[in-house]
Amino acid sequence: MSTKPMIDRYSWIELIAIYAGIFLFLAFILAPFAEGFLVSLKPLSLLFSSPYSFIPENGSFDAYISMLETVPGLFRFILNSIFISSVCTIVVLILVVPAAYAFARFPFSGSGALLGMFLAVNMFSGAVLLIPLFRLMRALGLLNTYFAMIVPGVAFLIPTAIWLLRTYMMRIPRELDEAAWVDGASRFYTLRRVILPLAMPGIAVVAITTFIGAYAQQFIFALTFNSKTEFMPLPIGLFAYFGRQEVIWNELMAASFVGIAPVFIIIIFLQRYLVAGLTAGAVK
Fold it and tell me: pTM (2 decimals)?
């Protein structure tokens, strides 16, 4: 068997094709972010000039200062989004960890169908369920509260989290559970003291992806279930200020980049946990 690294087995033409494909993929993904950032640096008078220039000639960060006056509650909206996403993440982890352990270790009749139903939940857009969700939130008295955005957010995030964590826990050797049971440990003790420490990389992945998902899905729920400014998350806060008369695009882009900065910071500082969780499951 050849011990030559797999990357060295490709010809130079194949390597060029591989790296060209990676470059095109990254360019396609990052192009909107790059263009949005460049728009935030341009004066408003140059945004619709002809011919259009991608690189700003007189670029500045003035829009990042002026948008604080246009959206005076921006930082409150950001804090609301962080709070809603954090609560959603905590609740999802509390519910998903024992559920994923049960699906991974104690298969029962109909478990496959139940997992399929969980996955099918993500096939439905939140807009399809807005009317029944609105009636439910009104019946529970949760309209115009944080819970009006947290409860449906958790419901839509749980299925994916269960699938991710269940797959990771299935790679943890079952012999560890059996050894703990032989020593007299209960199932809850086994989960808490044996499985959880080994599953922390997978839990970190679920926590990060859940937080990002909760941060990104707040618009439609907040638009329908909340009308109070003090509870508005970032997407609705920006929509309320920039959707009235005219759209000040450079300030909108500046406010958007400031708003998503917390997610970027989380990804930057926790990326090693994310990578470790995604790769560790492959070698368990």
Answer: 0.83
